[in-house]
Amino acid sequence: MTIWNDIVLGVCCILLMFLVWGEMRRADRRRLAMRIVASALAVIALACLELPLTYMRGLERHPLSPVPVPGRTEGIVSVDWTRKPGRGDSLRVQGRLAQGEGKENNEGAKIRLLLTGMGEVLDSVEVPVRGGTFALGTIPAVIGRTVYHLVVVRVGSGVAVDTLEKEEVPVEVMPGRPLNILFLAASPDFENRFLIDWLSKGGHGIASRTRISRGKYDKAYVRLPELSMETLTSSLLDRFDLVIADAAELSSIGAGELSVLRKEVREKGMGLIIKTDSIGKKGLSLDGAGKILYTAVDTTYSQVLSGKERPYAAYWSRILGQVAREAGLEERWRIEPGLPGVGEPVRVWLQTGEGGLPQGEIGGMPTVRKDGDEEGRSVYLAEDAQLPFFWRGAFWPETAGWQFSRSLQGDTSWWYAWPRGAWGSLRQVKTLRVGEAGAGDRERKSDARGSRSGADGPMGAWFYGVFVICVLFLWAERKWKG
Amino acid sequence: MSLWRRWKTEAFVFCFLLALCVSLPVVTVLHTFLDWPLWSAAAVLVGINAAAFYLFPYWRMTPEDAARYLDGKVPELEESCVLLLRSVAELGPLQQWQVVRTESGLMGMRAPHPLRRRLLWASGGLGVAFLCGMGILFLAPGKRMIDTDIDVKAPPFVPPPGIRSVSIRVTPPAYTGRAVRRQEALNLRVEEGSVVRWEVETNKSVEELQFVINDSVRLPMQAANTEHTLWRQTRTAMRPGFYQLDIGGKLSELYTLDVIRDEPPHITIVYPKPYTVVDYGQSTRIPLGVQLRDDYGIADGSIVATIASGRGEAVKFKEQTIRFNRSFAGDPSSVDLRQILDLSALGVKPGDELYFYCRARDSHGQESRTDMYIISLPDTAQLMSLEGMTMSVDVKPEYFRSERQIIIEAEQLLKEKDTLAVTTLNNKCNDLGIDQKLLRLRYGKFLGEEAEEGEPGVEGKGGEDGRRTGIPGAGAGAGDAGSFGDAAKILDAYTDKHDNAEDATYFEPAVKEQLKATLSEMWKAELQLRTFKPREALPFAYKALRLLKDLQQKSRAYVAKTGVRVTPLDPAKRLTGKLDAISPSVQRPADAVLPVPEDELRIALALLDRVGTGPGAGGIGAPGIMILRQAMQRLGREAATRPGVYLTGYQAMRRILGEDAEPVLQKNAVIGARAGEVLAAQRAIRQLLPEAEKTPMAGMTAPDEGLSRLYFNHINDPLSRP
Fold first, then answer.
1. For residue B712, which residues of chain A lie inside 8 Å, CB to CB?
2. Rounded to whole angstroms, how far apart are CA atoms B585 and B590?
3. Looking at the complex, does the CB of residue B580 fall below 8 Å from at least one CB of chain A?
4. How far apart are the first and last CA of chain A?
5. What does residue B224 show for φ and ψ, rounded to 5 degrees?
């Protein structure tokens, strides 16, 4: 392409010089300036018609290698992490590090990746100099938004020599929504007792109904008002995300109540854990919108007694989290690209259950108003043609750091904008991929149009018009004289 | 001569320059990349200097060498320079004349500089070396960058405003053996029980100067001069905490008062092992290796050994204290002891065990001891004896004959009395006596009696036994007319004496009394049998048998059958299953506050990230400030007990929240805090927090105006099927 450009430019220059020289040599000096301008315009228009002046100009000016060479790019070339872990979940940072060629000779040198946060190194891993994948992990101590750092250090003979890269890894640890859980038991047991103790320490709401005799129940409440629990009604079950019941208790309650329970699970998505003596049915099953789990394990409390509270918490967190009723979000914001940068376009999607025309507000580095609230910029959203609950818009972050986005009604959702120059190597690789895709596009286009390339569409028409007018003027001027 | 001296100096300087120019880059490299300390530079310099002196021995030149060199270089001297060095007396007249000529030539000549070029070279080399060193330092910035990122450095001590100087005298307690020391900084780290004397000099006269300890207690200082500029206070440091100075109403920063507690001595028994068995043939001299360590000094140490001998119920203990074979004069802080435990000297016989532990007392009087170590010396005498092999095979197995058997045999003996020879009869009778003895010993074991000795005062006790064996009431009634009204005796019959050592076995006192009576009967029977009077022995034997039978029956519960008729239940009243009147309790465990305090600290940790001007900066609303304030209070409480760990964080937190300065945060402004302070506060909070525990979290469904639900509900509708 560049050779073609050079040829076109060269030929046009020679043509221009020849034409100007011709005009100068003419005896008739009238309208000389106009004639020179006209010839120049004509040649320029001709050149522009041949040169590929399209929207790809920016890429043309910086010619790209059509084949991406990630091996040549130094640094982190791909990365991802748990953006919004729950409380107690581990933050895992995984990715791939590529190193330039010719560095393998550096004997004993290694690349060390450090995950730092709050002034402490939380995890580190060593990657050979030629590059490789890495995985770092920690359990965040915070609840809320914080920024960890991923530091790439070159290590020579055991001592850190050079910091190659330092990137921000923003994380928002979600506190989690407290669950409301109903226990139905045919007889008191240790399992329920310990589970209620543990859950109440975690801030969950609990109601427990333990059968003493027919129609007589022992009741306990944590963070819930006293409810009438003698009969299971739909309005009672609506309050709970999860019911943990003995098989014996379920078999002794009336058919009407059982059908209420089933309906609640099937239609409203409530979770149900049934404790049986032996596993006759399989573990977890979907029942309509809800989930039912059968378990025969009833001695997990012994783990608490033997001091293994962490495995106990992990076990029950997983089980209860899987089965509990899923909460419906009011709205959900999605941001693209994955690593938005300052001054780069960010596409935003709003998924909302609200009717009407939502108005988005996005901002970063919020200035605090008197009432302690943040102020952002309005973003106007367009509705998706097929899915009416999808709204899309665009935003250009102005400042680096945490950005919030929300509609007028909804909760605030947070995302992060990186400063210019962050994740340099990763962006470089992405740009190369875009370049590859662009080159592919262009090649496909040029294939379709044969070997011809250049300005087309409305731009081409303009240049064509200028050329024709100029040439006509030059021709008419000569005739006129004669 | 002066020339020679100058050259010699130049030679030294040259060597030194040369050494400097080699050692400079070498030291720079060693220091930057291998973390050698800077003082090693001196060693390297001296080493290379020595090498330079050896390699370039110009400094060894003599005046003759210098003269010879001059002769060679300067023709005007006419090769006679050497003559100048000799004394005038040695020289002949011709030589003297030549000397005068040479001297005049020497005055007129331009002195050559043989080492000038070398000196120039060396100086140039030094310049290059200096540049190299700077280059190396410049090229190796990587390590430094990380260090500065991660570390929060403690700032140097600056006295608070209004204070000209501080002088603190710390007098550690005598047991530490440490000298009195002085310091200028207000942050203190002193031994427990130290007497701390503050002397604070203020810039100008102040009304009052106070200590504020742990944010609560105020302790005024005494003015030492009339101008009120010099203040003193003395206090014994017992508990850790923090304090600040109140200078006429203005509070200073917080300072730590860290107290180093005295550890009890640490004792390690290197050898022998906790349980050692000394087999037959091994030496009974056991080596003992003990290490004693203490933070200040050990005042005393000893071994406490207990020998346990005997077996079964008849174990005897003998305790003795063994001194270590060295003195602890001068309170050494670390002692390695080697000693021999001579088992035979201690009196340990085969079958015995030696239990021992080591104890040590430090100069503060704190004592500690080790676990119990056991050395066992098994009894091999039975294994070694050949008794069973040498004796005849016709030996009956040893067994206890019952009392009944003894009686049967005694009666048999009486029947055969007339047919037997006297000696045989006596022998048989004696054998029976031995059997009786064995039986008595067997029952005696139940009472914890020792095997061999007889029954002291059997006769005297017998009457009492007989009385107490029966029903207590009867015993008390018989023959106690004299003691009527004796409260102690009446009480004695009815009280349960737990603390009586004799009763400390499995049996009740009444059972034991009877058993004792049985034994005394057996003893009497044995006495008769041993004196070859089987007939007289029989009554005692029978009585013993009766008592034994009685005893056996006592351990059985027996209920006689009775013909009681129970009134029938009234079904109209009972077992109706009506539960109307029963109302079960409603339990309401104390509701934990929400969010849990631990979570509040976690939230504070995240909020701190937004303090300052970092990329995550942003506003913290009023609730956020509340949370931060609570975290600060928590840190303050922790700092009072462990100032060394939490005070820096507490102080940083106070500064962030503007506690000491004007309240910036009250206006909800974005706080400008130094990154170091935020890090210090975060670090302190993190130390308070355990690793986050998992909590159940329900999934989230995406909002979709109920479209998915609609689809889900109608998925099975006939219309949706093709």
1. 289
2. 15
3. no
4. 44
5. -100, -15
On whether ipTM exceeds 0.90, the answer is no
CA–CA separation, B110 and B106 (whole Å): 8
Q: Are B175 and B364 in contact (CB under 8 A)?
A: yes
What's the burial of B103, exposed, middle or buried (CB within 10 Å: 0-12/13-18/19+)?
middle
Using a CB-CB cut-off of 8 Å, the residues of chain B touching A325 are 698
| Chain A contacts in chain B segment 601-630 (CB below 8 A) | 602-603, 605-607, 609-610, 614-619, 621-622
Q: Nearest chain A Cα to B667, which residue?
A: A370
With H, G, I as helix, E, B as strand and everything else as coil, classify residue B290: strand
Note if the bond before A388 is cis, omega within 30 degrees. no
Residue type (1 letter), B100: V
Token reading at B469: 């064996």
Q: B618 contacts in A (CB within 8 Å)?
A: 365-366, 368, 374, 401-402
B-chain residues near A153 (CB < 8 A): 142, 146
Q: Which helix (H) or strand (E) holds B332?
A: none
Q: Which pLDDT score is estimated for A208?
A: 93
To the nearest whole Å, the CA of B178 is away from the closest chain A CA by: 37
The pair phi, psi for residue A231, each rounded to 5°, is -120, 140
Closest CA to A380 of A402, A407, A403, A399: A407
| Backbone dihedral angles phi then psi of residue A148, each to the nearest 5 degrees | -90, 170
Q: How far apart are CA B34 and CA B41, in angstroms?
A: 13
Is B595 in the A-facing interface, judged by CB distances under 8 Å? Answer: yes
**Which SS3 state, helix, strand or coil, does residue B140 take?**
coil
| Cα→Cα distances A90→A175, A318, A380, B655, B699, Å | 14, 14, 37, 32, 17
Residue of A nearest to B693 (CA): A88
The Cα A250–Cα A263 span in angstroms is 14
DSSP 8-state code for residue B399: -
Determine whether the interchain pair B697/A174 forms a contact, defined as Cβ–Cβ distance below 8 Å: yes
Tell me, what's the pLDDT at B449? 64
For residue B160, the surrounding DSSP H or E stretch is none
How many angstroms separate the CA atoms of B671 and B681, rounded?
14
| Residue A102, number of CB atoms within 10 A of its CB | 7
Using an 8 Å CB-CB cutoff, list chain A residues near B682: 118-119
Single-letter residue type at A452: R
- Residue B391 touches partner A, C-beta closer than 8 Å: no
Least confident of A377-386, A399-408, B319-328, B656-665: B656-665
Contacts of B483 (CB under 8 A, 6+ apart): B489
CA B380 to each of CA B109, B374, B386: distance values in angstroms, whole numbers, following the listed order: 108, 18, 12
User: In the predicted model, is pLDDT for residue A32 greater than 60?
Assistant: yes
Burial of B464 (0-12, 13-18, 19+ CB in 10 A): middle
| A281 burial via Cβ count (<10 Å: 0-12, 13-18, 19+) | exposed
Confidence of residue A234 (pLDDT cuts 50, 70, 90): very high
Give B-chain residues touching A355 at CB under 8 angstroms.
705
Condensed to tens digits (0 to 9), the pLDDT of residues B4-43 reads: 777 777 777 777 777 777 777 777 777 766 666 667 777 8
Contact assessment for residue B622 and residue A368, using Cβ atoms and an 8 Å cutoff: no
Among A149, A114, A400, residue whose Cα is nearest residue B613 = A400
Selection from B645, B652, B647 nearest residue B611 by Cα: B652
- Is B672 within 8 Å of chain A by CB? no
CA B53, CA B56: separation in Å to the nearest integer?
Answer: 5
Distance from CA of B694 to the nearest CA of A (A): 4
pLDDT digits (tens, 9 = 90+) for B428-481: 999 999 989 888 888 887 776 654 444 444 433 333 443 443 444 444 444 455
> Per mean pLDDT, which of A466-480, B552-566, B577-591 is the most reliable?
A466-480
